[in-house]
Amino acid sequence: MKKQGIEFETETKANRAEKKPDGIHVEIENVKTGEKRTEVFDRVLVAVGRRPRTDGLNAQAAGVHVTERGFIPADLQQRTNVPHIYSIGDVAGNPMLAHKAMKEGLVAAEVIAGKPAAQDAVAIPGVVYTSPELAWVGLTEREAREKGYEVKTGVFPLSASGRAMTLQQTDGFVKMVVEKDSDLLLGVHIVGPHASDMLGEASLALEMAATATDIALTIHAHPTLGESVLEAAEAAHKQAIHIMNR
Asked: Which residue ranges does the record assign to the Pyridine nucleotide-disulphide oxidoreductase dimerisation domain (predicted)?
């Protein structure tokens, strides 16, 4: 995105915006220093997030606990504090994702039917459908270290992918976060074309407690974008054959 001329400012907030003949004047403040300045833009996109639509539900009348933010918490079987009432989807809490909601709905239905089900996913994948796409599942390198893991990483740039070259979309990479001693896969992060489609293998690997070796020993079709996951696993072992091992 920086190559496209997009500038990023972190630890920054927009205090106010005023529309004037020459554009929209936005007061920007650095939250660390308190320094303020005014910038002029053609357009302003305001993205304030989402909130659960539980206003007016009167769930409290049934004894169901509702948080200050409007969420209805649930346990691993999607039960609320009232055992015969269930909560799924966005109202059950973050992450507010359709695939997470679907899994919760399946769990709730199975529990109601008397089956021993639970929402016990190792990790919930996430995707940002930009161009290039961003997709991830599991821990980031920083999160893994904060949890006390000693980690190793493998990064494979799509600039070394034959399939990405044929698509003329070589911006991006696959990064694998692995526990150093056990070789256990902790997280996978992908930036690039069809990143969302490539994430399924990583999610399955996490659920099965796979190691980077398991992925590296799995033959992937060539040339494909999916083999970039294999290449990242090999890079974690410093055995990559299409990039330099650092």
From this structure: 124-232
Annotated catalytic residue 99: no
Can you spell out the DSSP letters for 171-236?
Answer: --EEEEEEETTT-BEEEEEEEETTHHHHHHHHHHHHHTT-BHHHHHTS---SS-STHHHHHHHHHH
* Catalytic hit among 189, 222, 237, 242: 222
Structure confidence by residue, pLDDT tens digits, 153-183:
999 999 999 999 999 999 999 999 999 999 9
Classified by CATH at the fold level, domain 126-237 comes out as Enolase-like; domain 1 (3.30.390)
What values do phi and psi take at 40, rounded to 5? -110, 130
Total-model pTM: 0.83
pLDDT tens for each residue of 46-85: 888 888 989 888 998 999 999 999 999 999 999 999 999 9
